[in-house]
Amino acid sequence: MDSGAVPYTVSVDRMASGDHACLGFDSHRARWAVRAAFTEAGLLRGERVILFVDPGTTPGKAAARLADHGVPAAQALRDERLLVINETPGYDPERGFDAESRAATWLDFTENANVMGFSGLRAVGDMAWALEPGVDHEELIDYETGLTPLFADIGFTAICEYDRRLFPPELMCRVGASHPTEVLQSLDALHITRTGTILHLAGNADLATREQFDTELRRSLGGPGPPPRLVDLTALSFIDAHCATTLIRLAAGLPPTARLAVHCPATHARVLRLCGAGEVRQLTLYVEAGW
After folding, report:
1. In the prediction, which pLDDT does 291 show?
2. pLDDT, mean over the chain
């Protein structure tokens, strides 16, 4: 069953405990960068991290790829804070896909991590096995949809990796919609979407993405159509002074009676205030609690 929902796009470093996310990728280099950031965040938080990889990726190879991105994976493997598994729970070439068995595996891993004193558990899983014989795609969609409340309940943070070069576009759309969260493939990307009167930003607003940031915000706030009423920066990992100033200047150019709310973490609010947000009557900052 398809959920019909539109996934919330975030950078990997903005994932929260219990998130169930989809990563659609078309570059193994980019995938390993996401894996490294995900692993590093988990290790820093005292969580156990599990990588479910393809059969050709040994723990040693995985540790080397993570080390290329600055993650001390070899030591984490030795003390079992990091596990690299190249088996596929719940799938057997002869018996096919067993969704119930696979879901039970996540409960077992979570209980084990709790008993061992970890603060949580996170995993990333290569989903290429879902194209093998014996996997019914309707069952796969139902399975993915059902994981969301389960993971939220047990605090299991997960990324399901789907290679866009292997999965048909229609199936990619359906598996993406079965996850509440979509992870950006590039750590340096900027993703901007509008839903009704809300403009959502995810990723990074910095030197590498300034041109895109300036162009899309001018189109939204300075274009002929009605501007958004809310700019949501809660999924944005970073905003530099240039981009903050662009947002403030565009808000100042709105009609005097217009009001634009910006929902953001405290770090972004600090940058915006330093760049003059408090001097623009059309602009109101709402700081997200806990950031």
Report:
1. 41
2. 94
